[in-house]
Amino acid sequence: MRKRTAVFTNEIIHTVLIMLFSMIVSCAGLQPTHSSRLTDSKSKPSISITKLETAIHALINKERQDNGLTRITWDDALSAIARKHSRDMSKRHYFDHYSPEGHDYLYRYEQGGYQCAVVEGHTIHMGAENIALNHLYDSVTKVNGEAFYDWNSQDKIAETTVQGWMRSPGHRKNILTPYFRKEGIGVFISPDDKVFITQNFC
């Protein structure tokens, strides 16, 4: 009886050791996968301002077409005005349609030498403006003091910007205004990875 018990006990110990070894190997095997994911997410994306603006413009036209409206054309002059406002918001640390001096988009149109007068019945529309604040990354994780960023792709920044506008009644109204024919998109990326976006209409 004692001999059989001893043999049975040794078999149990042997089985347990194999299981423990397998668990250690399995856990060790998971580490490179986790490490690789963090390493991959560490690479900051290269964002082309021009391509990002173009991508947003394309998505705006898709929203208009999906709602039975005509496409809106790109306007270089409006884009220049939009970029200037995005840059100003970043440089002077504010996010608003009004500058710290209280100037709105109509003032910026005037300063840029741009005239907008869209006649609709007995009403003259002088344009509109949307703004958005996005980011180059969604979150940051620190491992042993080292930061790993969940970077956004160029396409994702464009998509989330337009999605945000479409969820906002005022911004959505501007995008789906039938009588607007032109728009300009202006993007500025700040040193702290904030993405300021201005959209001007006429």
Explain what this protein looks like in three dimensions:
- The chain has 202 residues and is an alpha+beta fold.
- The protein contains 6 helices and 8 strands, in the order H-H-E-H-H-E-E-E-E-E-H-H-E-E.
- The strands form 3 sheets. The chain has a 4-stranded mixed beta sheet with strand order 1-7-8-4. A two-stranded antiparallel sheet has the order 2-3. Strands 5-6 form a two-stranded antiparallel sheet.
- Strand 5 (137-143) and strand 6 (146-151) form a beta hairpin.
- Helix 2 packs across helix 5.
Short description:
The chain is α+β, with helices and mostly antiparallel strands.
Question: What layout of secondary structure does this protein have?
Answer:
Layout: H1 2-41, H2 49-66, E1 73-74, H3 76-91, H4 105-111, E2 118-120, E3 123-125, E4 128-135, E5 137-143, E6 146-151, H5 154-167, H6 169-175, E7 182-189, E8 194-201
Parallel strand pairs: 1-7
Antiparallel strand pairs: 2-3, 4-8, 5-6, 7-8
Helix pairs in contact: 2-5
Strand order of the largest sheet: 1-7-8-4
Give the termini separation: 96 Å
Could you give the order of the helices and strands?
HHEHHEEEEEHHEE
Radius of gyration over all CA atoms, rounded: 28 Å
Strand segment tally = 8
Helix-strand category: alpha+beta
- Main beta sheet strand tally, sense and closure: 4 strands, mixed
Shape: globular
Percent range for β-strand residues = 15-25%
Low-confidence stretches: 1-41
Output mean pLDDT. 84
Number of helices: 6
Fraction in helix: 40-55%
